[in-house]
Amino acid sequence: MARILSKLHFHEIPDVILSSIFSLVTDTRTRNTMSLVCLKWCKLERSMRTSLTLRGNIRDLYLLPDCFQAITKLDLSFLSPWGCPLFDSSQYSLLLSKLLAKSFPKIVSLTIYARNPSTLRCLAPEWPNLRQVKLVSWHQRFNNALVGSEFVALLENCYSLSSLDLSDFYCWTEDLPPALEAYPNVAASLSHLNILIHSLADGFKSHELISITAACTNLRELLTTCIFDPRFIGFVGDETLLLIASNCPLLSLLHLVDSTSVSINASVDHDHDEEYKTKYSSISHTTLGDFFTSLPMLEDLVLDVCNNVSDVWPALEFLNSKYMRLKSLKLGEFHGICRPDGFALCRGLEYLSIKNSADLTESSLISISLGCPKLTKFEIQGCYKITEMGLWKLVYVLQRTLIDMRISSCKNLNTQRSLQALEPIRDRIQRLHIDCVWEDVEHFEGESSTDTSSTKSTKLKRRYMWEEKKT
């Protein structure tokens, strides 16, 4: 039997089994290398590829590949990165759209550089079964374009659209609401909407968010920039939060981020309590409790308001008692997070981020560590009352679960203190980001080797000190 098996060649493996092996390889470079082995492998790999990114000059039509008939996810955002539109009103554009549709007939997910509305007018009719679309553009719309005209072709032809990503699409906030209202059936079919647009100086106003959520009532994931500062027209306050929750009760992921948090460096060093009292949002803890009540499916919540919200512990305690689904929570400029006698933030939490909290202290960290036993990732930024001992106690209690840490702009946590506080998880931590003061690094590395804690912390710095890659 051994002799018979030794004479078998890898090419004699049935195509069905070989296809199953190929399907387990997901890395693009590896698959490209596999396709160079022989003609059989090349054809098999090309026939099974489901995701593809095209680069180069789209004007060279003879280079357009036609061997990827199984592609379902296509990225065309790199074909004209310098502002030149893919399509215009010429016959050439119609020919290009037909060739793309023929080369990739099964597309359901598309990323496209849409410099002007003609791009979607040419392509959308060719792929009516699109379910996921991401639009990319770094230029303002033309002055003569009608409000919302950039989305009309997409909403008019793609009835099965379930995901729309505009995070890299330069548009005005007033463009989207009328387009969604004009096509209510498509808007109602959307389950994912990402309008966390980094290029906007101002976020979506309250009436625009209300219109968007009223049109997209079946949303399960919503990411958006907005304005929480009550000094501006269209700020998001109590009424807006309640209407968002009422319009989209099925939300499981909700990210509401103030536009100043994504447009500028939000790492602010607060030296005094008074600096936290300069700007207040129009959000009360009572409204937050009602807001959480209206979203029973919530699993991932981000509220980065960049304006102070005080005494929120009653709402967070209610969140802890009612919402065991919640896995990820990020709070920006929320104060009074912990009750004076301590409380469990949320026992099911796996990721917690606290940013610019004025009264977060050592005892607060102890309460969090005891109340969140499943915490695997913890992020803290701009909390100037946090000390090395408080962070060490949190890490010590959570040493069996905590594998990801981010420490940024904390006044009392320089590099040396941060690394010493992470000593209990030095052998388990998988990802670490520290953005602190580095003035003591040379002295820290030159300390005597007889100091056990310093020696271990030095090894920890050398081994684990690396920037987390953006995904």
Layout of strands and helices, then pairs:
Layout: H1 2-6, H2 15-23, H3 28-34, H4 39-48, E1 51-55, E2 73-78, H5 91-103, E3 109-113, H6 118-123, E4 132-137, H7 149-157, E5 163-169, H8 176-182, H9 184-189, E6 192-195, H10 206-215, E7 221-226, H11 238-247, E8 253-258, H12 259-263, H13 285-293, E9 300-309, H14 313-322, E10 328-334, E11 351-355, H15 362-371, E12 377-381, H16 388-397, E13 404-408, H17 415-421, E14 431-435, H18 441-445, H19 452-464
Parallel strand pairs: 1-2, 2-3, 3-4, 4-5, 5-6, 6-7, 7-8, 8-9, 9-10, 10-11, 11-12, 12-13, 13-14
What can be said about this structure in brief?
The chain is an alpha/beta fold and 471 residues long. It has helices at residues 2-6, 15-23, 28-34, 39-48, 91-103, 118-123, 149-157, 176-182, 184-189, 206-215, 238-247, 259-263, 285-293, 313-322, 362-371, 388-397, 415-421, 441-445, 452-464; strands spanning 51-55, 73-78, 109-113, 132-137, 163-169, 192-195, 221-226, 253-258, 300-309, 328-334, 351-355, 377-381, 404-408, 431-435. A 14-stranded parallel beta sheet has the order 1-2-3-4-5-6-7-8-9-10-11-12-13-14.
What can you tell me about this protein's structure?
The longest helix has 13 residues. Strands 1-2-3-4-5-6-7-8-9-10-11-12-13-14 form a 14-stranded parallel β-sheet. α10 packs parallel to α11. It is globular. It starts with a helix and ends in a 7-residue tail after the last helix. β6, α10 and β7 form a beta-alpha-beta unit. With 471 residues, it is α/β, with parallel strands linked by helices.
